């Protein structure tokens, strides 16, 4: 959703000027060639005022974000990385993307996997606890003459209490699995807006540094996009962005060992739709943003593939679980072949592991 909201901000901010020049304030009331009833004139003026206010509010929001302190720090960091590395701007953008994601999102993703693994392991302790609570509830019902409803309330409360004790014991609250979003989404927004500022000489177009950076970006591209301040007219980067994002979703789906729930299936379709929508969005923004988005998604895909490996998971402290794949890459390759029709689909019992090779 953040990608779609950035759509307006990643283009030249001319909306406010357009409304300013065409604002029909009192024109309708003084126009002798178009006599409308006073109520109609008031309605038109009020509706137009609402539209102008909404547009001004959106422009004001993006202007505030563009001038914010985190974006300013990110902008300065991008310039420093480019100056110290001596790389062309396209390579500097890729380098900074990999650097920021390695420092921010990779540790958070590892932490998320640790929390998920702990939750899965404590879930295995619950069946024995549930059976014990059932016996205790039956004894309490007989001893205190409780009704079925009273017994059920106490039983459910006891289960919840025991689950909370396990969560506290292993320090794995389910809300902690969302920690990646709190790091990745702000990073993505700030770096996108910072690159947009560099392209459009913001926030101060009269700054010598801004003019130098913008000039360097016009010759800092590569191959078919030598100018990073214009859109990719070949559509190669936008299409690559969509394909990489779809690959991330499919890898996560195919590496799942348990049957997907309705919510998971629905979310997969939503993210697939967003991946497709990002293609036309990327076709309208400067190539510098496309380079960043493609680099960020490529890092995400590589990160997901890397964290499927049992060896890598053990090296970063992720506990082993029952749903962990022993041969994840063989299973992924098998499922890809099944999807394209090269191999017949296996039975449900054989979905978690690839067939043994001789």
TrEMBL record:
CDD domains: 5TM_Oxa1-like. It is a multi-pass membrane protein. The chain crosses the membrane at residues 89-111, 179-202, 222-248, 269-295. Pfam families: 60KD_IMP. One of its GO terms (cellular component) is mitochondrial inner membrane. Residues 89-306 form the Membrane insertase YidC/Oxa/ALB C-terminal domain. Keywords: Membrane, Transmembrane, Transmembrane helix. Signal peptide: none annotated. One of its GO terms (molecular function) is membrane insertase activity. One of its GO terms (biological process) is mitochondrial respiratory chain complex IV assembly. It comes from the Eukaryota. It is found in: Membrane. Its main location: membrane. Belongs to the OXA1/ALB3/YidC family. This is Mitochondrial inner membrane protein COX18. It comes from Drosophila kikkawai.
């Amino acid at each position: 959703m953040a990608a779609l909201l950035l759509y307006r901000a990643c283009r030249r901010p001319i909306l406010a000027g357009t409304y300013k020049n065409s604002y029909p304030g009192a024109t309708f009331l003084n126009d002798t060639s178009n006599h409308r009833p006073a109520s109609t004139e008031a309605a038109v003026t009020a509706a137009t005022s609402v539209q102008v206010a909404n547009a001004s509010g959106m422009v004001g929001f993006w202007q505030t974000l563009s001038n914010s302190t985190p974006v300013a720090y990110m902008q300065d960091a991008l310039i420093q990385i480019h100056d110290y590395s001596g790389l062309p701007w396209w390579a500097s953008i890729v380098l900074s993307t990999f650097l920021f994601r390695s420092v921010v999102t990779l540790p958070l993703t590892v932490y998320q996997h640790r929390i998920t693994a702990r939750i899965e392991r404590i879930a295995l302790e619950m069946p024995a606890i549930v059976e014990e609570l059932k016996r205790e509830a039956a004894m309490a019902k007989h001893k205190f003459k409780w009704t079925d409803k009273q017994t059920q309330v106490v039983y459910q409360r006891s289960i919840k209490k025991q689950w909370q004790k396990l969560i506290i014991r292993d320090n794995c609250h389910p809300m902690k699995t969302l920690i990646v979003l709190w790091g990745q989404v702000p990073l993505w927004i700030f770096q996108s807006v910072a690159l947009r500022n560099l392209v459009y000489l913001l926030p101060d177009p009269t700054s010598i540094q801004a003019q130098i950076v913008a000039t360097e970006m016009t010759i800092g591209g590569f191959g078919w996009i030598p100018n990073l301040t214009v859109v990719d007219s070949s559509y190669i980067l936008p299409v690559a962005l969509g394909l990489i994002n779809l690959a991330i979703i499919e890898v996560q789906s195919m590496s799942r060992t348990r049957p997907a729930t309705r919510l998971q299936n629905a979310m997969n379709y939503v993210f697939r739709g967003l991946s497709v929508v990002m293609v036309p969005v990327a076709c309208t923004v400067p190539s510098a943003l496309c380079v960043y988005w493609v680099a960020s998604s490529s890092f995400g895909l590589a990160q997901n593939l890397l964290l499927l490996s049992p060896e890598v998971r053990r090296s970063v402290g992720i506990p082993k679980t029952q749903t962990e794949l022993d041969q994840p890459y063989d299973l992924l390759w098998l499922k890809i072949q099944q999807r394209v029709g090269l191999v017949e689909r296996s039975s449900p019992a054989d979905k978690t592991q690839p067939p043994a090779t001789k």
